[in-house]
Amino acid sequence: QAQLVQSGAEVKKPGASVKVSCKASGDIFTGHHIHWVRQAPGQGPEWMGKIDPNSGGTMSAQKFQGRVTMTRDTSISTTYMELSKLSSDDTAVYYCAISIEAAAFPSYDYWGQGVLITVSS
Amino acid sequence: EIVMTQSPATLSVSPGERATLSCRASQSVSSNLAWFQQKPGQAPRLLIYGASTRATGIPARFSGSGSGTEFTLTISSLQSEDFAVYYCQQYNNWPPITFGQGTRLDIK
Which residues of B touch A111 (CB under 8 A)? Predict the structure, then answer.
């Protein structure tokens, strides 16, 4: 059974950075790109980017380019998403997600539990 | 960037009745569209991908239709557990992948 387990909630000050982890179970880590999606309170989901755990190659939304860094540690089947220069607009729940059933398309059937990142002075 | 517009923002329906939710894309997304259900405090749950294919374990009362720019999610006979927020997502032209702002399905 595929499972994605994320790190815990954090509170950050404006201008700081945050690094969220996502550990994948079983053999899904190297077989699927891992996407990062965030959701601000009362808003729809927003795609941030993705990482290929095999190659380490990444793709990110233009909105976050220059602020988001996605990395992976294959030895522990974990990917990381770091977001810098935080502002209050970055307060959101951050999810990692993968697509297994329709693997060729990013229609996510497995999600992490989500991590609430609060940016407040 | 493709903008996804969902309507209505809120839909009030009685249990046992049919619910019809709409999603419009600002340009054609072919059939590269998914629908998600989200309940408070939970991650979104995939219902439909490829515009009309039900994901594994999704009840047959959920159906998706449409292609191009107009899509519909139909729930044929609402159960109590179906009252939630529903999002559409396009993955035809990305980056970025984009989502709609959601339709809240309330009990009437």
Answer: 43-44
Counting one residue from A and one from B, how many pairs have CB atoms under 8 Å apart?
A: 62
Residues 6+ apart with CB under 8 A from B36: A45, A108, B44, B45, B46, B47, B86, B87, B88, B89
Closest residue in B to A40 (Cα–Cα): B101
pLDDT tens, position by position, A43-102 = 999 999 999 999 999 999 999 999 999 999 999 999 999 999 999 999 999 999 999 888
Q: Shortest CB distance from B43 goes to which of A47, A61, A95?
A: A95
DSSP E strand boundaries for chain A: 4-6, 10-12, 18-24, 34-39, 46-51, 58-60, 68-73, 78-83, 92-98, 110-111, 115-119
B55: DSSP letter: P
- Looking only at the bridges linking them, the beta strands covering A34-39 and A46-51 are antiparallel
Among chain A residues, the shortest Cα distance to B92 is held by: A105
Nearest CA in chain B to A47: B97
Of B50, B87, B95, the CB nearest to A102: B50
**pLDDT value for A30:** 80
pLDDT band at A103 (very low <50, low <70, confident <90, very high): confident
